[in-house]
Amino acid sequence: MGIPVEQILIQTINGLVNGMILALVASGLTLIFGIMDVVNFAHGELVMLGAFTGATTLAVTGNFWLALVAATLIVAMFGAALQISTLRPLIGRDPLTTILATFGISLVLQKYALWQWGPSARKLQEPISAQFSLFYLKYPWYRITTALLSAAIIGALYLFLKYGKYGIWIRAAIQDRVMAQAMGIPVPLLHTAVFAIGAGMAAASGVLFGPLAGVTQTIGADFTLRAFIVVVVGGMGNLGGSILASIFISLLEAYASLIVSPAQAVIVSFVALILTLLFRPTGLFVPTPK
Amino acid sequence: MLVLDNVHTYYGKSHILHGVSIEVRAGEVVGLLGRNGVGKSTTLKTVMGLVRPSEGHVTFEGREIGGLASHHVAHLGIAWVPEDRRIFKLLSVMENLRTGLDRAGVTDAKKKDLLDKVYASFPVLGERRGQAGGTLSGGEQQMLAIARAMMLEPKIILLDEPTEGLMPRMVSQIHEIIDVLHRDGVAILLVEQNVPLTLEASDRVYIMEKGVVRHHAPAADLRANHAVIHQYLGV
After folding, report:
1. Which of A109, A172, A264, B167 can bridge A260 by disulfide, Cβ–Cβ 3.0-4.6 Å?
2. Can you tell me the mean pLDDT for B188-200?
C-alpha cells in the first residue's frame, strides 16, 4: 500500500481536531447520562441550536468569540429550562418516557430551526484566517485553535469535577444518588446544573464547528449519532472513556478515509461500535468490570 | 425530638410498616431490635424521606417531615448511616467526608475541627484520606460511613446495623464511637441485630415484630430481664 507518510500525518491532525470537537459533545452527553440515567436524544440539537445562536450573534456583533460565549450561556440556560420543564417531572418514571421526551424535544428543535433560520446552510466566518504550511497543504490555524479550545474546556470540566465542591457533589451523585441526597446534597438542582453544563458544552462545539462546515437544522442528528457511538465505545457515563473514544473514533475515520471515500469511512465507526457491544459491552476505555 | 406516630408505609403493594410509633428525645440513644425483615431499616428510611409514609406522622422538633425530600431532612440535622454503608467508592476518604462538610455556612476553622475530631476517633481514616473509599476494608468503610454522617453535625444519627459483619475489635470501636457521640449530646436511633451491644449502648429499646413495635422498655430493664428478649428475638 503506498500511502504517503505526510498524508497519514495530515489525517492524524484532522482526526485529533474532529475528535476534540466530538469529545466536547460526548462529555456533556455522558455526564448527563451518568448523573440522571437520561439518554438525551436531543443532545445534537443543542449543538445545532448553539451553532445558530452563534451565527445570529456573530451577524449582529461581528465578534466570533463573543458569539461563542453568548451561544454557550444562552443554550446552557435553555438547557436548564428544558430540564426543569420536561425531564424533572419524569424522574422515577419508566426510562422509555425520558427517551421519548428527549426524542420529541429533538424534533421540535429541528422544526423550530427550520422555521426560524430557514433550510439553507449558513457558514460562520472563522475568526482566524491564517494558515500554515503542512507538507503540500495550507492548513488553517483555526482548526488547531478549535482543538486546543475544546481541550481547554474539557480540561476545565475535569478540574471542576476533580477539585470543586460542586464537582465532588456531582461525582458523589453519579455514584449513589440516594446517598448523596441523604448527605444533604440538593440532587434535583444538581441534575439541572449538569444538564445546563452539558447543553453549554454542546453549544460551544456547535459554534466552533460552524466555520468548518455549514450550519443547517440537521447537523444535530449527525452529532447525536457520533456522540452515541463514542459514549457506548467509551463506556456509558465514563467521562475519560468518552474523551478517549472520541479521539479514537475520529482517528479511525480519518485513517479510513485515506483508503475509502470519507462517506464510507463512517462505516468503521459502526464496526467499532458493533465490536465493542459484542466483546466489551461496558466500553473499551474502562477498567475490566469485576 | 424525633417522633413517629402510627406510621404506615408500603413498597409497591407490600405493606411494610403497620403503624410504627417511636420517640427519640434529644441526646438519647434508642435501640431498635427485631429479626430480619420486620421493618427496622424501612423505619429509618421513612424518617430520611426515602420512603413516603402512607399514613401517620413523622415529626422532628415539632415539624412534620413525612415525605420531605431527603436533602431537606439532612439539612434539619438528621444523618443516616445505611446498612450497606453506601460510601462513595470511587471518591477518596477525604472527598467522602467533604460531601457532608462542604455545606453553606461551615467555616474553614469549623471544617478543621470536625475533621480533627473524626481523625481522633478513627485514626485510620486520617492515614488513608487520599485513598479511594472502595479500597477500604469493611470495618474501615463502616467507620467512614459514620464519620461522613458526623460531618453534617447532626442532632440525630440513624445508625443501621453498624456492626454487621465486623470483627469483634471493630465492633468495640463502633461501640466506643456511639458512646462518644452520646456524650457529645447527639441522639442516636440504633438499629441492630447485636442484642448485647444494643442493650449496653442504649438508654431505651424498642422491639419490632412484623412491622409494628411490640415492646418498649428502658435498656436497663431488659438487661435485667432476658425473658422479654428471648420471647421476641429468640436469643
Report:
1. A264
2. 93
pTM of the model: 0.90
**Domain assignment of residue B127, yes or no:** no
**Does A192 have pLDDT greater than 50?**
yes
| CA–CA separation, A149 and A205 (whole Å) | 10
d(CA B79, CA B150): 8
Task: Give the ipTM of the model, two decimals please.
Answer: 0.93
Domains defined for chain A, CATH in brackets: 5-279 (1.10.3470)
Answer yes or no: is pLDDT of B59 > 90. yes
Residues B111, B136, B162, B2, Cα dihedral to 10° = 30
A45 to A51, A56, A72, B228, B233: CA distances (angstroms): 10, 16, 13, 66, 60
Q: Which three cell numbers stand for residue B63?
A: 415539624
**Taking CB atoms and an 8 Å cutoff, what residues of chain A touch B156?**
none
Determine the residue of chain A that is closest to B153 in CA distance. A183
Q: Domain holding B39: CATH number? A: 3.40.50.300
Q: A73 vs B173, which has greater pLDDT?
A: A73
Quick one: which of A161, A67, A56 has its CA closest to A116? A56
Nearest-Cα distance to chain B for A81, in Å, is 21
Nearest beta carbon to residue B99 from set A172, A186, A188: A172
